[in-house]
User: Which sequence fits this backbone?
């Protein structure tokens, strides 16, 4: 009985938090996208003096970059110098 | 007839509809596949595309689609007697709303989680997108006007509800703060907020100094107000201005600050409200005093107006926007669509059913019912008040005093209406911005320009029309127009599902029959109203309604023609109908 009650409360909490979590995640994602753009702006033709250093982050960003171009509706990486799939 | 029996009959039919009809549709028509990789998995990004447990998703879907509309429509429609409203709600939910909500969900899941607007573009053509945007624009404009009218009138009619409703705003800001900034769970704070609201309701119903009664301040109904208006009209005007300032601020704030925490509180109110009313129904065991059919009706025929008066609760195009907008992106397994989509519609049917029961059991005798529901105009302006009193009558079964339960029920209705108002104003802002993109008018894309346009047009719509009820009569006159625009949207969605099914070579009768029914009723009702009532030679000439009605009517005809060509087309285009 107690465990069922707990499950019910968890379910209710989950229903309540779903849209909220999505909204917060979406704002964070937008911030991340902006950060990515600042780091790799050179690749889309915007001069970036820090490009030489940010390129070192490339291996760590690969997965995120892959997620990003899929989200933007591109099946493959749009940048020839940035292959991930 | 006994109201419990009526509720039971309704529940049993809804249950059978879910158990058998939706199963048939799921297995034989949509052929749901448990192994199909849904967009939630294929495009999983933990933001929009998140595989979600079906019970959680149902809860979210249901709270998103249920609002004040399934209460307002039935409370007015019992004007024609309880049987037509009951039958339309129950059969409409089983054969139209269920299939519509379920179908838009499946169609979207099979098409990368895209919304019905985008799918209309792909399945019908380019013009369909703009047409869609305009219909939604008119729809949300009317939602704004109608719900602002509803809230202002409830504030005037039930002044005890003002304080608890306004307390909800700082409470929501507080929840937003502790959930977002302090990363705490939201169940307990939102329950505390609800408790504070209801305690405020108890006090404000007991002590008149806590009731913000503008009419009383101006010397009662016969008093005089500003600009030579009467006290009631002035109070109405002030409330509309206050509401419009509020929605302006609410719509430009980030959603997590005010809108979402309000939704958390309101989803509790939905559960509490449904619980109080259905449990109260069992204890009170009221008799239905309203007539089965109201034969004394002379002004407005139930056929076809009933089918547009009850939109949400029987079938609603707005649900398709939710189904294909967010729910489809979170469906874990394709087979869950039946549970989420169809049962979500059933949930709203249950809400509409209790709204009917509350309104038809309130009056001590049939004569009193007929006296209150003396004309369609009287039903439109007084129906909601009847629901609130009827619902408080049911709540008295739980031992809640009438004055307190009336305030609580009015708070529930106002909160639902305010949430709808918030979201529809925000939606209107987005649509104006999108039209700005389509027509290359970048100024419309600016947040404050789009919001101001939305707020001013909504305020003008609800304040300008002056009818028999004085200032603001446009609000309730617009209700049938809200119904028609909403049904039109539902018709388009059903049409999209039919085209999709036809292209797959499947039986599309389950969607085309409700589509033809809904479209036929909508067109017929519109034609009657636009030509014989609102035009310059009509019985109730009103240019504003004529213009709006005529625009929607032209859209409807356009869609019918598009429907014929899309359904009979050869489809030599390369539209991908189904993901391989």
Assistant:
């Amino acid at each position: 009985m107690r465990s069922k009650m707990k499950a019910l409360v968890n379910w209710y909490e989950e229903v309540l938090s779903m849209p909220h979590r999505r909204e917060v995640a979406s704002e964070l994602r937008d911030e991340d996208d902006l950060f990515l753009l600042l780091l790799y702006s050179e690749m889309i033709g915007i001069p970036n003096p820090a490009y030489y250093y940010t390129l070192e982050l490339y291996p760590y960003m690969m997965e995120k970059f892959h997620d990003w171009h899929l989200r933007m509706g591109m099946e493959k990486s749009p940048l020839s110098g940035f292959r991930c799939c | 007839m006994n109201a419990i029996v009526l509720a039971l009959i309704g529940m049993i039919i809804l249950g059978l509809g879910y158990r058998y009809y939706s199963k048939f549709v799921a297995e034989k028509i949509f052929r749901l596949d448990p192994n199909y990789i849904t967009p939630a998995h294929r495009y999983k990004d933990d933001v929009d595309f998140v595989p979600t447990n079906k019970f959680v998703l149902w809860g979210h879907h249901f709270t998103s689609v249920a609002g004040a509309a399934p209460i307002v429509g039935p409370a007015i429609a019992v004007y024609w007697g309880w049987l037509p409203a009951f039958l339309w709600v129950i059969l409409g939910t089983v054969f139209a709303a269920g299939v519509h909500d379920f179908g838009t969900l499946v169609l979207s899941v099979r098409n990368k989680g895209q919304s019905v607007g985008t799918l209309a573009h792909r399945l019908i053509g380019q013009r369909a997108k703009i047409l869609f945007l305009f219909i939604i624009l008119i729809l949300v404009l009317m939602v704004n006007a109608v719900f602002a009218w509803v809230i202002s009138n409830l504030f005037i009619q039930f002044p005890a509800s003002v304080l608890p409703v306004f307390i909800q705003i700082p409470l929501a800001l507080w929840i937003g703060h502790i959930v977002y900034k302090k990363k705490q769970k939201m169940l307990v704070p939102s329950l505390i907020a609800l408790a504070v609201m209801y305690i405020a309701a108890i006090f404000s119903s007991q002590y008149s100094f806590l009731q913000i009664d503008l009419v009383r301040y101006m010397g009662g109904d016969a008093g005089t107000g500003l600009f030579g208006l009467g006290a009631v009209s002035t109070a109405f005007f002030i409330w509309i201005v206050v509401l419009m300032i509020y929605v302006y601020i609410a719509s430009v704030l980030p959603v997590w600050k005010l809108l979402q925490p309000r939704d958390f509180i309101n989803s509790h109110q939905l559960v509490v409200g449904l619980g109080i009313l259905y449990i109260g129904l069992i204890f009170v065991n009221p008799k239905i005093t309203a007539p089965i059919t109201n034969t004394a009706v002379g002004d407005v025929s139930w056929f076809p107006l009933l089918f547009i008066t009850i939109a949400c609760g029987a079938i609603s195009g707005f649900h398709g926007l939710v189904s294909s907008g967010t729910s489809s992106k979170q469906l874990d397994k394709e087979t869950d669509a039946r549970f989420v989509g169809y049962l979500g519609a059933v949930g709203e049917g249950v809400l509409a059913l209790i709204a009917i029961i509350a309104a038809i059991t309130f009056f001590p005798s049939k004569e009193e019912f007929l006296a209150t529901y003396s004309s369609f105009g009287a039903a439109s302006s007084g129906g909601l008040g009847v629901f609130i009193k009827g619902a408080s009558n049911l709540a008295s079964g739980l031992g809640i005093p009438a004055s307190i339960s009336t305030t609580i029920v009015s708070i529930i209705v106002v909160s639902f209406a305010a949430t709808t108002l918030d979201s529809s104003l925000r939606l209107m802002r987005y649509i104006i911005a999108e039209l700005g993109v389509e027509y290359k008018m970048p100024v419309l894309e600016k947040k404050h320009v789009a919001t101001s346009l939305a707020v001013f047009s909504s305020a003008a719509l609800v304040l300008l029309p002056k009818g028999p009820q004085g200032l603001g009569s446009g609000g309730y006159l617009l209700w049938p127009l809200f119904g028609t625009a909403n049904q039109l949207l539902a018709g388009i969605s059903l049409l999209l599902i039919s085209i999709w099914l036809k292209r797959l070579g499947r039986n599309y009768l389950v969607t085309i029959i409700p589509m033809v029914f809904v479209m036929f009723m909508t067109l017929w009702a519109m034609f009657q109203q636009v030509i014989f009532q609102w035009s310059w030679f009509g019985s109730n000439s009103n240019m504003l309604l004529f213009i709006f009605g005529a625009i929607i009517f032209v859209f409807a005809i356009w869609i019918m023609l598009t429907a014929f060509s899309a359904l009979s087309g050869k489809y030599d285009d390369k539209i991908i109908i189904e993901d391989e």
Observations:
- Chain A touches chain B at residues 9, 11-20, 22-27, 29, 67, 70-71 (CB under 8 Å).
- The radius of gyration of chain A is 19 Å.
- Chain A has a mean pLDDT of 81.
- DSSP finds three helices and no strands in chain A.
